[in-house]
User: Fold these one by one.
Assistant:
Number 1:
Amino acid sequence: MYSFMGGGLFCAGVGNILLIVSTATDYWMQYRHSNNYMHQGLWRYCMPAKCFTHTDSIAYWDATRAFMILSLLACFLGIIIGIMAFIHYSSFDRFDKTFAAGILFFISCFFVFLAMAVYTGVTINYYGKRYGNWRFSWSYIIGWVSVVLTFFSGIFYMCAYRMHECPRSSNPQ
């Protein structure tokens, strides 16, 4: 049980760090415009010498930002509850922290998956038709890696929950 919880905490910790880096950096997409390479993230777009804040409130950027922030919060809460379960901190007797941490990691995975799907769909439809020389960049790739890590942290915590529940349910009272 503890090895599953440790693996879940490791995946969640790395996934949360990658979520922070992916959300905060400006390399979600790179493209060439007027013989210059430019890049943009969720908050800013950068030209060769200078970066500018996105001033337009475009729905897919707002949705992607919101889902990424919700994912960060869910993953952070899952880590806190997962640590409490790991050290057997018991403030609630009827509250299974292992199960709650697993559910929060799955919620985090769902939110980051939604963010990445919205950004991918709109970017491909918009930039794919207008620009020929563009590509997704490393911040975007880190976002997809965090989807996988938060998913596996949820899997690890659900396995730990099942291992913890099986001996309890097999003892008749």
Number 2:
Amino acid sequence: MPRRLTSDYHYIRFSVSPASTDILTIRKSIQDALGQSFGLVSSHTYVDVLWIANDGSEVVVRIGPSDAPKLLAAVTAWTGSLRLSLVKESSFLPSLLSVDKLS
């Protein structure tokens, strides 16, 4: 019987508009989006920014599985200047590599 791989984290790949290579700006936008949608306590949700594209157009974050839906809802409703759009999400980090570019 195949073994199921479990993960303590959920990984999300976002596109960033306008592009930004400043990790603090991206992290602050995530924090502000969570705060706007779910209040002060949720704005301090533990989120790791794992990777930023060289041109700043994409970012990969790591978050707890129970907080992932909250983050996705928050960035959807976010009205700030830095927009994050979902590219792909998974509990298996290497699966985020298989993303076809939109034309």
Number 3:
Amino acid sequence: MLHSTLGLCLLLVTVSSNLAIAIKKEKRPPQTLSRGWGDDITWVQTYEEGLFHAHKSNKPLMVIHHLEDCQYCQALKQEFSKNEEIQEMAQNGFIMLNLMHETTDKNLSPDGQYVPRILFVDPSLTVRADITGRYSNRLYTYEPQDLPLLADNMKKALRLIQSEL
């Protein structure tokens, strides 16, 4: 009886250690600040860091509020990351931040806390509540088919900066 119990324990230890090795060998993609929104874009880590860089570089800050388990966010992210025009503008014209949590700045939720939500903050650190999407009940949300409007709004944010110089 003792021999069979020891044999069973030895078998369990062997199986569990082999399973642990197999799990460790599984390749996982590195988690970056892009979170899938665009790996070639330089992303800031916090809202405060974004405000600092926006002010210092005289570029607008684009804040994307999203959640990993939101199907609408995932659909928007997929199209956003494939759109070359938006990726180029985000990479070269904006300070970029994507958040999976709310900030303490209530100006970033002028019409409520929902996702996906995209807002622009100009270099003077003013949230541009006048740059909206097409939905009257969720002013700052965009769906995948709204990417042309998002691109136009990104251009609008860039033009506003140029006109203030």
